[in-house]
Fold these 2 entries.
Entry 1:
Amino acid sequence: MADFENASPRREPEGLGARDVRLNAAAPRMEDARAALLRYFGYADFRAGQRFVVDALLQGRDALGVMPTGAGKSICYQVPGIVLPGLALVISPLVSLMGDQVRSLIDAGVRGSFLNSTLSPAQQRTVMKRAVEGTYKIMYVAPERLSDPAFRAFVAQVHIPLIAVDEAHCVSQWGQDFRPSYLEIRDFIESLDRRPPVVALTATATERVRIDIANLLGLRDPATIVTGFDRPNLKFGVERLEPKLKRRRIAEFIADRRRESGIIYCSTRKDVDMLAEWLACQGISAVRYHAGMTADARMQSQRRFIDDDVPVMVATNAFGMGIDKSNVRYVLHYNMPKSIEAYYQEAGRAGRDGEPSECLLLWSDGDIATCRYFIEEGGAAEGLSEEEAQRVKSVQRRMLDGMVGYCRTTDCLRAYILHYFGEDASSVQTPEGAFADGCGNCSNCLGDFDTIDVTETAKACVSCVREVQGAFGKSMIADILRGSKAQRVIEAGLDGLSCYNAVSDSATQVKEVIELLAAQDILSISDGTYPTVGLGVRAAAVDQDGFSFSLKKIRRNRPAARPFDAAASAGASAFGASGVGDSDLFERLRALRKRLADAQGIPPYVVFSDKALRDMCARMPRTADEFLEVNGVGEKKLERYGETFLSEIAAFLSER
Ligand code: ADP
Ligand code: ZN
């Protein structure tokens, strides 16, 4: 099956400091890398972004790869690590996951290892001893380890042909997950007798973070690639729902996808606990994960989710970094996150195997208020001057605006995200061609809109703001316009205003009109915890003849009320390729995978990805050679699991 690609390598201009590194004839080349990719990972070829990074590293150049979750960043250093002589070091902040990452490697036949605090001192010594003896090709370490004298002494005894810095955005204070220990990486690299090529990888796309990475890690003229951020297999949806309706919506959503794995993100621990308990009452078993739980409890939740023992994970954003469970079929957001960066990273944990998956964001006004509150009241990062703190806040406000814009837009959601990351959606190719008119696979592209004329309401809003001279927020204005008898209105004498009781729209609708007016600069909404509504620079527009104003609303009154589900319930075929094959067989292979994984104490996705299972269903291999053709089947996998899977498939075929 062809992998759909959309990468646009940006090579540094030739001659601009590009060092001419010639390797001797024995040095590994791209052909060796390609052979290793096939042999150990079962992939016929590199994806464009991977090829670019691997090529740079084999030439001895530093590299910086910015690729979305699911792009296959680990291959970028694992394959060079395999083909280059010596021990490749991988620096990663994800201590709790190193064990899994290494087990995946070992299952593929690669000699991997890790060093971190989950090992006893004696175990650590053994690992280092074996590493010196040349037992391993790849070693994962946490950044804290780099300054440890014992580790430095160990490093001096091995040949290190490559250093990979995973989750490289952790070095930047402008990123989401700043880790001070990442600042030590540069010193470590510079302390080495022979500085090997360094590759930094991240999914964070913003320019500022990218620049920080190159500077703070001390990359030298890195070959840089930013791959397309489109994730064609993800279907995006946004629904505005009052908080009390959200959990019912979530239960409905899960009920239709009971066998699938999914993550639900909430912004607070309290909501995580509430939602997980509520789901349990609905007969949906879910584990939870947040920073208020003990490390043990978190670990256990994570295990049960990764091992497919429990399909649903309810979590705060504390969960997920580095989780490479590839068969997460949906990511729901119970609240709106604080930025598109955060949203895309979390939602992007769906469908890493490239199979169709869904990302649905539920939001309400309260979510925006909560985010505003955290920006204004939340202490900015410690150690910043007042001026710096203000700058950070204004960056955060702008990021929040971007997020709110996503929730409100009635245009293609995918185009919105790509535009946010600086890509022109009309140039993005989909399997069906360019998507100039929308992607056809998001709730806005799939939804029908009703257009409601709200010209009079819009005018009333503007006169009200003029009359109260920008003293109030949205809800108060809605109260005044709707003629509310609330105490706060009457006591302040607002019922005497000429705009009092001027409209008959619902409060929600008045607020939507205000927001839309603000988006068009006719009104303006202030920053701060209690944002007030003032006039915008284009306020005079309402006084002009022919002014008209309308709201677009997704039509919800049809039987298939939710465009998001309507397409999903049409079955996997709505997504094209995944309809191939037989779903009974898929379930059998899935069960077999689970048995094999449990027997070895490894996560099922390590045995085979969902994509590999689907490909087996499509191809129904009968021989070892045919089995090797399956996406994700390398020699080691064939040796390890070939017979078992082939006989399951044969049994299935004979029973038909
Ligand atoms: P990232 O770390 O960038 O989020 P992963 O390394 O988890 O991505 O890889 C995502 C998925 O893509 C994995 O399921 C992996 O097996 C698959 N993959 C990686 N490289 C290739 C390739 N060259 N061909 C096909 N599938 C690939
Ligand atoms: Zn779309």
Note: The CA atoms of residues 581 and 617 lie 5 Å apart.
Entry 2:
Amino acid sequence: MCAEKWENNEEINIFREYLRIPSVHPDIDYTACVEFLKRQANSLNLPVEVVYPAVESKPVVIIKWLGKQPELPSIILNSHMDVVPVYPDKWTHDPFAADIDEEGRIFARGTQDMKSVGTQYLGAIRLLKASGFQPKRTVYVTFVPDEEIGGILGMAVFVKADYFKQMNVGFSLDEGGTSASDVHHLFYAERIRWVLKLKVDGTAGHGSLLLPDTAGVKLNYVLNKLTEFRDSQIQRLKNDQSLSIGDVTTVNLTQLSGGVQSNVVPPLLEAIFDMRLSITLDLVAFEQQIRDWCKEAGGGIEIEFPLKEAFVAATKLDDSNPYWMGLKATLNELKLKVKPIVCFAVTDSRFIRQQGIPAIGFSPIINTPVLIHDHDEFLKAEYYLNGIEVYKKIIPNITEV
Ligand code: ZN
């Protein structure tokens, strides 16, 4: 009975239609998303443009709501169109059917991350337009590709395009986290992502001997040092309850390779580490520490960084940031509980911040199991509609700044 209750809800239908587009990695064809969003723009009577900052297959859809003072810096309401892969046999519902169950839960990949936010922006604009509201600042609702694979052919190039410069962006809102409690997780910064690759040379020979300076012994030394460092971060989290995972540095050995046969000591072993560096970590000193450990291990270790992101300053959450003050006023008015945190992973907001533009990650998803990238991802229909009401309040407060 409950499921039928939602069948005729226009906003729920729009959301479910978007969810049914399988814009899932790998090799996404974004055509259906673009067509869907163009229709949404038309239904809102707003102009829409599609640009291709990287390649023809990676569109960015931009819906423009002209402000009364378009010369002022604009606001971006951003979301990504892509979703991560699914293991369909682990789902109790087809991940691209957007079924609604008796409790009003809508099951589909992208319900939390983050198609919901994209169509909630549009739902809020629909309500605001109906009420006769026109923003002071121009609002751009942007839909970007490939966030889930690092945004390299998406937001990373879009922020460098002429089109983006002409948008004169003053502030951006993008995805936050899902919260299992009643406290929203709001992202104002992200950790810095490094990938460390060690190519460890050593003495090769027969597996029956005790040869000096083998690759295994050297790698063991560095691995121990990195593990001790990792333990120190676990301790920091334990000792200070106010810290969350985004406040510490994580180091994880993710790939190991080398060797040809069990009785041959190999001349080379390779190890790859995923590192997410705290924004308070001294990056220069940390890199030097890694280099010192490799020397202490006996040398002959080649250090590579296949990925080495630069430091990006956090978005300020104080009265020097008028957009934050506008957002904060709304959150207070709605009596929403919010905990500002450093995002534990990365999102497209980092590319916006790199341009010196304040960016905040916020998703109005609380009291919901965190199923981002997990099986049976769902969002309750009533929470989805409530999110539209939240954006209906947020948008005027950040555009009137
Ligand atoms: Zn996402």
Note: The chain has two domains: 3-190+344-399, 192-308.
